[in-house]
């Protein structure tokens, strides 16, 4: 993977791109008005993170084109702030000041909703195993600007970690977060979507392992929450007995933590 900029650059944008490249330990290459296919042929790499003044984009030449944006999270947050209940927040029973660990960050949409619900006194840690997705979302959270300052502030507060979620869970102390959350990529897509299909090309498709849930039980203070298809066998396989239904094809499984044990 290569970090570069758009055709129109500034010293500040180039420095930002160089810092991202240094952080994720991949090369920075000056664009010099070259097309990405031409850069691919010259450099032998088809994956690029492209920074511009307006957006952060991941491109795998000829296969995937994905840019950071809050997506449906923005609408969910507006509804939440107007007093309309968000089912994910209800399932996780998130309160102001909570610490939430999102083990499958993806584009960071759920992490952003959590960050708004937990407020400035809360903490949201978003774990992403795939380097391209991690770099895209980490940079996007720090630079994307919406018309709502509460959303902008929430994006800046999210702590992105590049790690396998099992490794991260094993590294954390017992009862160190309030909620551990999972939204793994569905093995069967709910529907064809112009927004989701490019994500599927770079996301981690592995099913959750029972060991992951056991580690989550050790780390969580209140609950473990799993987003899945309503009639998925994953809830039963992984020990989620309580489910909170949504109005769509999805549901949230919940494992409540008994802190007296």
TrEMBL record:
GO terms for molecular function: rRNA (guanine-N2-)-methyltransferase activity. SUPFAM superfamilies: S-adenosyl-L-methionine-dependent methyltransferases. Keywords: Methyltransferase, Transferase. Pfam families: SAM_MT. This is SAM-dependent methyltransferase.
């Amino acid at each position: 993977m290569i970090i570069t900029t758009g055709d129109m650059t500034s010293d500040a944008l180039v420095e930002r791109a160089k810092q991202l490249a240094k952080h994720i330990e991949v090369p920075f290459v000056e664009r010099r008005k070259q097309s990405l296919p031409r850069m691919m042929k010259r450099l032998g790499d088809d994956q690029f993170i492209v920074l511009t003044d307006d957006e952060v984009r991941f491109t795998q030449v000829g296969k995937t084109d994905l840019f950071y944006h809050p997506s449906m999270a923005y609408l969910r947050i507006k509804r939440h702030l107007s007093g309309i209940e968000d089912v994910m927040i209800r399932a996780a029973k998130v309160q102001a000041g909570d610490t939430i660990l999102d083990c499958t960050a993806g584009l960071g949409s759920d992490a952003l909703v959590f960050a708004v619900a937990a407020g400035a006194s809360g903490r949201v840690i978003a774990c992403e195993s795939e380097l391209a997705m991690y770099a895209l979302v980490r940079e996007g959270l720090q630079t994307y600007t919406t018309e709502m300052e509460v959303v902008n502030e929430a994006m800046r507060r999210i702590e992105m970690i590049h790690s396998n979620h099992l490794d991260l869970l094993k590294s954390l102390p017992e009862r160190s977060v309030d909620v551990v959350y999972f939204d793994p990529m569905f093995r069967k897509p709910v529907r064809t979507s112009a927004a989701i299909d490019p994500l599927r090309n770079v996301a981690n498709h592995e099913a959750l392992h029972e060991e992951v849930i056991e580690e989550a039980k050790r780390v969580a203070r209140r609950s473990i929450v799993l987003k899945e298809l309503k009639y998925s066998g994953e809830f039963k396989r992984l020990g989620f007995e309580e489910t909170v239904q949504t109005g769509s094809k999805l549901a949230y499984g919940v494992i409540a933590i008994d802190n007296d044990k």
